[in-house]
Description:
This protein is of the alpha+beta class. It has a domain at 3-231 and 421-425: Ribosomal Protein S5, domain 2. It is built from 14 helices and 12 strands. It has helices at residues 3-10, 13-23, 29-47, 125-138, 162-178, 185-200, 207-214, 257-273, 284-289, 291-298, 300-324, 328-346, 359-371, 397-408; strands spanning 55-66, 76-92, 97-102, 106-111, 146-152, 217-221, 229-233, 242-248, 376-379, 387-393, 413-415, 424-425. Strands 1, 2, 3, 4, 5, 6, 7 and 12 form an 8-stranded mixed sheet that branches. The chain has a 4-stranded antiparallel sheet with strand order 9-10-8-11. A hairpin with a 7-residue loop joins β9 (376-379) and β10 (387-393). The termini are close together.
Amino acid sequence: MDAGELRQALEGHGGTAALESLYGRRAGAVERQRVRYCTLLDRFASAFPRAAEPRLFSTPGRTEICGNHTDHNLGRVLAAAIDLDAIAVATPGGDGRIVIESEGYGRQEISVDDLAPRESERSTTAALTRGVAARMRSLGHSVGGCVACVTSDVLKGSGLSSSASYEVLIATILNHLFNRGGIDGQEIALIGQFAENEYFGKPSGLMDQTTCALGGFITIDFKDPSRPEVRGVRSEFSGSGYVPVVVDTGGSHADLTDEYAAVKEEMKAVARRLGGSVLRDTSRERVLSELPRLRAELGDRAILRALHFFADNDRVDRQVQALETGSYGRFLDLVRESGRSSWMLLQNCYPARAPREQGVPLALALSESLLGDDGAWRVHGGGFAGTILAFVPDAKLDAYLSGMRAVFGPGSCHALSIRSAGAVMLDL
């Protein structure tokens, strides 16, 4: 079908069912998404008027729920896909080129015969596109020319993984256009990680790409980093009566590289003093038994960060169990525990060099004031600036959003839904 026929399908019963499967049935959600997809189809028809048989694609963003700064020491994490996503209209073509009109970034044109990394493209979406295509081809998958229009509402700089969502989207397009959808989600995630590490230049782990590719709640054990153990978590959290909310407190991550690096290095320094290379090689008991020596050699903060690792690493399994048994009160207790551990032990809620800038602690304190014992809140992602994650009861959602927006601005709060579907080509 052409773009016009695809638009008609979106407006029919099949389109409604497909959109409900991705965005739920919350009031107005399907209609907002229908308008969004139809607008993108119009852009596609204008940008590529000769393109035939376009198809629709979607890849979610993700939120980290537990395992704060545990992956780099080969720990466990718990994450979930969300209903903010990157979407595309795409079809084969482009005369051996991958041509992408990406909203906010202009046009990319990449020859499928020239997929070597380019230093000039580092840290750009073109690097992600080229890296995805290069990795797919090196693994023996088919890659061809195509044209696409892309847009995303995954918030940049919010810890919701806009880059992972994009690279998984590109891999999903190439998977369906040239490989009949035969590449599984785990391999799609690895392809995306390769593009981000080797072409974009960001040494990310695998949590973001895996969650975007597979959807739902995901737990990952990085004990063997070459073959992380990934498992979907069975949960009916949408019926729990709580809404995940991300609050952007402001502040830039641009000058925080040294803060993030210190967390990783201090944890590993403790491990090395105990004969390992990462904290997964040792134990909380070993750390406690060597406290006098470790304090003298490394100082107190490294020890506290190590203790956080062990606590949050164990907490992941307990949160998974709570989700799978529907024990949502226990799940929320554990979210609060994780938040306190990040605040007290990991110490990643504000930069040590800038004590006046404490947007994250302020948001946590306001969340406690607004929610009391009903709900949960914690720093989100890498920390030091940026966002918090709260779980807010339905009855308090409007008051919570109003209270937080009054302090952090009208665009600061985003109520989310957990999305069960990962990266998909829409079936209308």
